[in-house]
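pasting for ref
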Amino acid sequence: IARYEPGLTRAADITVRDIGGMVSGYRDYYPLDFVDRPMAAPRASLDIVRDFASRPLDFEPRARYSYSNTGYLLLGAIAERAGREPFSRQLERRLFTPLGLRHTRYEPKRGGPGMAEGYTPLGLGEVEPAVPEGEGWIGAAGGIWSTPTDLLTWDLALMDGRVLTPASWAIMTTPRPLSDGRTSAYGCGQSIRDRGAVLVLQHGGAVSGFNARNAFIPSSRSGVVVMANADW
């Protein structure tokens, strides 16, 4: 990580793959299940990364698995530097357009035409529109808006080898070894269930007012996507 952000805690000891595998030890900036006042205000994503990833680590790198949205914001910043163009442009040019994901956007204006409204409950009362995160708080950690059909198209493209090289697919789908010999049940951007009859790759996501889950089974070339514009 020191190659990109040398000021972060233990930057020389933590790799990009550690970040993708959620074994870095960097503290998650979004552990709450609601948007508080600081998060409702705009803030640059890189400022958030530098704030939370310059604090003491939650654990020694590679000793534990712990999901950290901070890591995903950092990966977005690294992608911009490595690719020399904005992350949004990379997604459009390399993924959305070639794969025909016509209803998928990165950080569109909330409340725009065709965009769903997210809802949240308040105590025992009726549900109401959820307070959105301020600009910069989601980004590469969950700023893609899509539809079930587009996500299933994405799943097929992954399984058919149209997105990743075989070597990258192996990294994504292999549970990360931890320093004590256990594995994390997480590869690189995918939760991995490999102890049943078939390998299942899955990931969930949630932001204020929305929930989603995507699971697919490579051996049968099948998948299931569930989305809700509700965060409970």
